[in-house]
């Protein structure tokens, strides 16, 4: 699924760093004017990835509140408790993980690597894509140290400013652990979390007056054969793709809160389809509530294949429909994600994990929905995992992992 990058920048709410006790009617001694106004869009929630590290994936919006450019020199994400740096972005790393809101876009409609946000023009907003990784206990709270320079007119030295901004608590609830959303075979986890520039992880969209990253942890699933081939024959035909008509199954017991069928599938293969109306973005789909505030979304089903209705109770493993290419989809795949509300827009996207799978290997090149059918062949470039028999329990597949669900 492709979401175009957002358009015009918007003002963000400010967040001041924690201050010492303030005398009645007074102002804390560390209070200052800051050139950068910072905010976040979600509560960072921990999830264990297949790399053995815990990930906190979230975004930092930075608005230049001055009338001149401000250069971003360094961003440190600190454990608010012990003030230790968990992540530092500077120079090339900062450029690769930031972009101006509404600026140029790259191949997937997200970040253009040639247009980093290391300099924020006057009254403009940048987004910094954060993937904080660590082992051990999750910090209770984070704070962001921004080192910046107010650019002097005429090319002077400028004025450096450092400030701790946007304190935020982390999620206390562990990532929901699920069964597989598909049946057996090797499955390619395309456009997954957490650090890669993909249209899921970096799909910033302005919805109903607020910024959302609507697919932060979403995965597009593609079935491969044992030679890592995902399509054979004519790539302009839906039936050439191994994923097509494969069953999508309930990853947990729950209640169907939304089921839609009847939308047509793409006719533009192997090229991307025209962008559909926003209400048709996810195509034929099923949304299952597995507990209050936790909803599983399955999108892009084949027309006429949805096997459940709103109000139905489903058990783990029940067939919900068949993989297709309806809505904003180029090639047949299952778009799967967890949401906090029973709707694609607007809602937050928390992480999730699967109870057990093996990591077969990794697709080594950026190949996603829009370009899959444009490759010379359907065989994906692949490198095997060091130990493909190793069980991965209660982990989230990372971007471009190839996995087999279930552990015998």
Helical content class: under 10%
General form:
globular
Distance between the termini: 32 Å
The helix-and-strand class reads mainly beta
Taking the sheet with the most strands, its summary is:
12 strands, mixed
What share of the residues does DSSP label as strand, in percent? 35-45%
Helix and strand element order: EEEEEHEEEEEEEEEEEEEEEEEEHEEE
* Rg result: 22 Å
Beta-strand segment tally: 26
Mean pLDDT over all positions: 91
With helices defined by DSSP (H or I, 4 residues minimum), what is the helix count? Answer: 2
Regions with little confidence, pLDDT below 50 for 5+ residues: 1-18
Structural summary, described in words:
The protein is globular and about 65 Å long. With 408 residues, it is an all-beta fold. 2% of the residues lie in helices and 37% in strands.
List the helices and strands and how they pair.
Elements: E1 36-40, E2 47-48, E3 54-64, E4 70-79, E5 85-90, H1 91-96, E6 98-100, E7 119-120, E8 125-134, E9 141-150, E10 159-169, E11 176-178, E12 186-190, E13 204-207, E14 210-213, E15 219-224, E16 247-249, E17 254-260, E18 285-291, E19 294-299, E20 313-314, E21 319-322, E22 334-339, E23 352-363, H2 369-372, E24 382-384, E25 391-395, E26 401-405
Parallel strand pairs: 11-23
Antiparallel strand pairs: 1-3, 2-3, 3-8, 4-5, 4-7, 4-9, 6-8, 9-10, 12-15, 12-26, 13-14, 15-22, 16-21, 17-18, 17-20, 18-19, 19-22, 23-24, 23-25, 23-26
């Amino acid at each position: 699924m492709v979401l175009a990058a957002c358009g015009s920048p918007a003002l963000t709410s400010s967040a001041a760093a924690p201050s010492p006790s303030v005398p009645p009617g007074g102002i804390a001694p560390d209070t200052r004017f800051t050139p950068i106004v910072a905010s976040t869009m979600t509560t960072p929630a921990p999830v264990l990835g297949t790399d053995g590290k815990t990930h906190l994936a979230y975004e930092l919006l930075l608005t230049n509140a001055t009338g001149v450019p401000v250069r971003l020199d360094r961003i440190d994400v600190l454990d608010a408790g012990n003030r230790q740096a968990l992540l530092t972005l500077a120079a090339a790393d900062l450029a690769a993980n930031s972009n101006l809101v509404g600026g140029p876009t790259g191949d997937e409609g997200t970040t253009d690597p040639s247009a980093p946000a290391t300099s924020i023009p006057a009254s403009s907003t940048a987004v910094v894509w954060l993937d904080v990784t660590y082992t051990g206990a999750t910090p209770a709270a984070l704070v962001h140290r921004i080192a910046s320079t107010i650019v002097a007119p005429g090319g002077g030295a400028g004025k450096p400013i450092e400030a701790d901004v946007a304190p935020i608590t982390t999620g206390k609830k562990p990532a929901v652990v699920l069964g597989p959303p598909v049946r057996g075979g090797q499955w390619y986890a395309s456009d997954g979390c957490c650090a890669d520039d993909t249209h899921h992880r970096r799909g910033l969209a302005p919805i109903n007056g607020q910024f959302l990253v609507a697919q932060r942890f979403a995965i597009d699933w593609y079935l491969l054969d044992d030679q890592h081939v995902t399509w054979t024959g004519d790539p302009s035909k839906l039936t050439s793709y191994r994923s097509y008509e494969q069953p999508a199954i309930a990853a947990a017991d729950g209640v169907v809160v939304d089921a839609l069928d009847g939308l047509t599938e793409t006719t533009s293969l192997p090229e991307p389809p025209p962008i559909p109306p926003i209400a048709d973005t996810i195509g034929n789909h099923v949304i299952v509530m597995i507990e209050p505030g936790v909803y599983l979304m399955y999108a892009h089903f084949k027309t006429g294949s949805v096997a459940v209705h709103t109000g139905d109770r489903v058990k783990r493993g029940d067939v919900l429909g068949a993989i297709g290419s309806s809505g904003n989809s180029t090639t047949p795949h299952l778009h799967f994600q967890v949401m906090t509300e029973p709707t694609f827009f607007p809602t937050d996207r928390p992480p999730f994990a699967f109870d057990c799978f093996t990591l077969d290997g990794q697709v080594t090149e950026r190949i996603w929905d829009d370009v899959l059918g444009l490759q010379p062949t359907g065989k994906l470039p692949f490198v095997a995992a060091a130990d493909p028999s190793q069980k991965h329990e209660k982990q989230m597949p990372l971007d471009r992992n190839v996995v087999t669900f279930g552990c015998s």
